[in-house]
Structures are given as structure tokens and as C-alpha cells.
């Protein structure tokens, strides 16, 4: 492709887009190193960005160039460079759901959570119209439709919008019947590997917003082999709910169920987009983060604080070391749990450090703004900064659901929420 680009691509935006994409495929989702020291991960990264920017200067709304530029920049130290492209792309192709969704990959990293939600709402509406005209019951694009729902849920969780998050999570759940989850595509086990894990979204939403009794009352999927990933997440959620409510015996029973679910052979090879659900050797899967959070929560609420914080620090490490993805493989940052429980445990200085790190990654997110304010206030430290952070929190939380008590960055910290 380089030869074609060098010979014919000087002013041809289609060739520029295909050349840049060919370079991106050398290291998919790995163009940049992980935070905090983000820099090019491969020697072609800067060439990719330069090629795309050259093309966008010729045609700012070229669908391929704009699409690839957002992906090339989203994980960079400067995602805001793609804001203009995102804004231009947002309403340009109303019949292309995936392109309507793409700006959210930038909005989420610059703290524009409302815009991220709105972009995905538009994409979902477009996809529904597309799906209504398709004869095929299962197709590869179904994965991308689930991805858009997933993103809408994730952004809504950051924005404090429980109702919106749950609405889209339930829509996903309704679409993942047994026929879909067990489907094959071109001879590949498509539904089990690629789609089933999206069914776990409602459980993540309920944990994020502290709906403990709703978690306990919620029915689980009957077939634990068909819904292997979702079942494990359900046990994770139930264990935490019982722990927070002070029911240690029940929490331990659900923890045992969780570990049993991890041993389910049906779980093998299942993924949630870029990340595996579970890797029993490397412990670098989504459910491996869940394991650490679950154990941290259960031990904390038993009063075993040293053991709890060991697990919660491990949860943060597992979370930040997941393969890069948007939405993140772990939907509620583990730092939000660690920070809240440190703060409740009267370790405000440590909590402050946790929240400052989280705000570097998730700009102006209401959960860590609240935690940072509480940490500064508890220490009676830098009152001017504390008031500035409180103002930012009030602005960031303006769209929050009134039904949720935003008393801490994790509603598991019940003393902070009372």
C-alpha cells in the first residue's frame, strides 16, 4: 500500500485513508503506550497521524479519514486534536450509525460526557432503522450495534444518568435471546464469543448506582452455559450487594458462586470487544478485575481492611492494564471504589492521590471530582482548590438522576452516602 500511496496518493484522499489504515493494522489498538506516560508505541504512529491530517486538510469530512483519525488520536496524549473532526462528523452521515457514534470516542476523553451520550443516541436510532430493513437475522454489524449501546451505557454511567444507562442496558439484554447468543456466522461461533458478554451491562449499571436491593431481587439467566460471562458478572454484583448490606454469609456464598462461574468451560474464548472475559493464567481479563473488586469489597465490609485494600490496589492495576478499548473493558474505574473506601476509612490523603490520578484519565468526571473535594475537605487542605473542585462537581453533576444519592465515588461507601 505504501507503493500505491507514494505513486498515486499525493492528492487522493481515498488512497491516503487506505494507506493510513494499512499502517494502523500493523498494531491495532496499540498505536500509543499506556498512561501515564503516553507516547507512540510503534514507529509508524506519527506517520499515520500526519497522513490523516494531510488528507483532512483537503476533505475535512471524508468518512474514512475522519473515522481513522479519531481512532488514531483517541488514545494519544492530545485527543482534543480530533474535536473539530468529531464535531464535523457528528451529523454528516445520518444513515451511517457507526460514523454517528465515532465522535464519542473523542468526547469521552475530553470530559464531554453529554456529547458522548448524544452521539450514541443518534447512532442507535440510525442503527434501528438500518436493522429494520435487513433480512439477515445475524450479521457482523450486530457487534458494532452492541458496541454503540455499550458506549451509550458507559457514557451515561460517567454522567450520573442512571435512567438512561439502564434503558440502553435493558435494550441490549432484550436483543440477546438464546437464538442470538448461540448464533454462528460463516461457521464461527459468533454469538457466544462476541455478543453474550454484552448481556452483563445491567448488572454493571446497578452496581455503579448502588442499587443493592435491586441486584438481589433481579433474576439471573437460567442457562449458565449459554450466558457464561453474564452469569459470572451477576454473581460479582450479588456478592457486592450482600456485602454492602452487611450480609457477610450471603456475600461469601455469592463469592463462591463467582469462582465456580470462572471455572465454567463455556467461558473460554469469550470476549467483550478487545478484552477477554477471563484469563486464569495471566489474570488480565474483565472478570479478573471483577475478582479483585469483589474480594476487596467483601473483605472491607467484614472489617478486614488490610486484605481489602490489597485486593483493591490489585483491582486498579488489573483495570488500568486491560487492553485499550472504548468503552473500557471495566466500566466503573476501580479507582472509584478504592478512593471511596480509603476516604471512608479516614485515609483522605491516599484517597486524594487516587482521585487525582483518575481525573488525569477521565477528565472532569463527577465521581472523582466529588471524591477529590471530599478528600481535600477532610484534610482541611487548600480550601480555595476545594471550592473550585466543588464548583466543577456541581457543573458535572447537573444532569444526574435525582433518584440517586451521589454521596461518594462508589456508593458502596455507605457511611459517606448517609
UniProtKB/TrEMBL annotation:
Record bears the keyword rRNA-binding: no
Regions annotated as coiled coil: 345-379
Superkingdom in the source lineage: Eukaryota
Keywords assigned: Coiled coil
Keyword Nuclease: no
Protein name, UniProt field: Tetratricopeptide repeat protein 38
Species per Swiss-Prot/TrEMBL record: Amphimedon queenslandica
